[in-house]
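Q: How would the structure tokens look for this protein?
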Amino acid sequence: MRHACRRRRQILIRCTLCGREVPAGGEYWACNGHRVCGDCLPEFARRELAPYREIAGEEARQ
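A: Here is the predicted structure in token form.
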């Protein structure tokens, strides 16, 4: 009887914004269906929080 060596399949995680692979043990953020690497996190946060953006001195112009 032949025993097959079973390897655990690693799930490939790619950043939704830049497409780079997040290495095993690397951190990423999962939010609203996106997976975002640390390099792209500031841009992602800007996009996600854009509806809440305000400009000082223009609050009363609504």
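The beta strands are 13-14, 21-22, 28-31, 34-37.

The chain has a mean pLDDT of 87.

Upvote if useful.
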